[in-house]
Design a protein that fits this description.
single chain, 144 residues, mainly alpha, Arc Repressor Mutant, subunit A, 3 strands, 63% helix, elongated
């Protein structure tokens, strides 16, 4: 092994920096959510349903960029665990809403999210946090 310093040629690349930041944030959030017994994707679905009662499975998939083939088992799992339930919306569609148990864990999930964001963003000032969110949103917002 050589004593010379090694150079990471990926370090100056935006995509590399974004992936590393995302991986760090996801790892921390996954650890926190494990105590609630949900994954990041399940948490996202529960929060979307909480904010949009009677939303359809396909609407959630579009909103969160989850393929329809993946939505069915995710929703089925959350329903089987008693966190969500299907309800008729019109003649053909079923909407989703949280059960009492689902409503009961929303506060915990939001607490985990806040703790995750605080831990990851602790080294940034409040204005820098807002600027970071705006800049990151600008990178993907027109890709919806």
């Amino acid at each position: 092994m050589s004593d010379r310093a090694r150079v990471n040629p990926l370090e100056p690349l935006l995509g590399y920096q974004l992936r590393r930041a995302s991986a760090a944030m996801q790892a921390d959030l996954n650890t926190r959510l494990a105590t609630a017994g949900v994954t990041t994707v399940e948490m996202s679905i529960l929060l979307v349903v909480e904010a949009n009662p009677q939303i359809t499975q396909s609407e959630i998939g579009r909103m969160l960029s989850i393929k329809s083939a993946n939505m069915a088992p995710l929703v089925g799992g959350l329903c089987n665990r008693g966190l969500m339930e299907r309800m008729p919306v019109n003649g053909r569609s079923h909407g989703l809403r949280l059960t009492k148990a689902g409503e009961g864990i929303i506060g915990d999930l939001l607490g985990h999210i806040r703790a995750n964001e605080e831990a990851i963003m602790a080294h940034l000032s409040s204005p820098q946090r807002e600027q970071a969110k705006q800049l990151l949103r600008a990178l993907w917002a027109d890709k919806r």
